[in-house]
Amino acid sequence: MPAGRTEVAKGALPSPFPEGWYFVASRQSLEKTKLIQKTWMGENIVIWSDESGNVCVAEAYCPHLGSNLGPAAGGCVRDGRLVCPFHGFEYNADGYCVDTPYAPAPPDMRLRVFETTEMVGLIFAWWGIGGRAPQWSLPAETPDQTGWSGTRIWTHRFPGHPQETTENAVDMAHLRYVHGYDSVGRVETIKVDGPRFESNFDFATTRRIAGVPFISLDLTAQADIFGLGYSYVDVREHSIGFDIRLWIMATPVDGTNIDMSVASQVREIRNPKRWLPGLGFLPRKLRAPIMNRIALYFQSRDVLQDVTIWSRKKSRLQPILSRSDGEIMAFRAYCAQFYPETPVAVGDGHRSATNRQPTAMEPTPAQPTTI
Ligand code: FES
Ligand SMILES: [Fe+2]
Questions:
Q1: Ligand 1 pocket mutation, candidates 76, 84, 100, 109, criterion most atoms within 8 A of CB
Q2: Which of 89, 142, 143, 311 has the most CB atoms within 10 Å of its CB?
Q3: CATH class for the region spanning 20-127
């Protein structure tokens, strides 16, 4: 096999760990627990913050003699430094060893750290193929928080892949079939600009509780995708007049499972065209937080409907598409940039989903739409 190439399994996507920014923890959970250890992108990592709030995400093994640095092994954060449980070496939030209990810190001793960025209390870290530095950034601007509720987060773990879950943003057909949405229609054609992918659509839905209609909604969703771990969705509801923001964050755990986290915010409703049942009787400052709970509840139900499919499916790298499914191939062409190492065909003739031409005997898949 030529150097620099990756063997892929039959029917599998090129890697369970595509390059990009992936959610690691919320600021709120970090402040509560001080030191978090988890498996992320197949790596055992620790996350902590110094006293100024600078976050460090690092491999959870000490460069000295290899101790695990997590709380279960005895690692702790003291005065904003991560302290190794084995010999007490101390690390600052840049990952450098700055002190030991019995000798000067070895020069340039440093943990293997991952670049981080933060938005509305959501902390992301960069996963670069071969450890390379960030190739692009998440949006630098934090959405305006005035009049918006705080951020709520819901997470669910299941066997899956972030490309399969993010592909939902262009799979218009499933919105009706899996989620029961009506009047699904694209607002504009999809747009691709490097790592950014935009997809807008209208839909209507009747939300039910225990099968009983709770409320009918008329919505426009604008999805702004940056890689396979970060999708930001602005949702405008027209019949009442309220706004929701969602961050959909698919994070590979161990090569099989992903953590799907959904964070949401709702804007305070000021002059509704009509009220949600019961909401008009609440004090104004409670309305947005309660709306946010309701919004996240329904959104998590939608995700669980998808999980039923996602966790049982296999990847079809050479799908046979209907005429209206063409955007799926445009999305896959966009995804190729997150696997910078070229996959090599193995198994029964797997080839890249993005450059393969159908043979004369095969049905012709829909062509990518013009973008
Ligand atoms: S292994 Fe961490 S200080 Fe020795
Ligand atoms: Fe879906």
A1: 84
A2: 89
A3: mainly beta
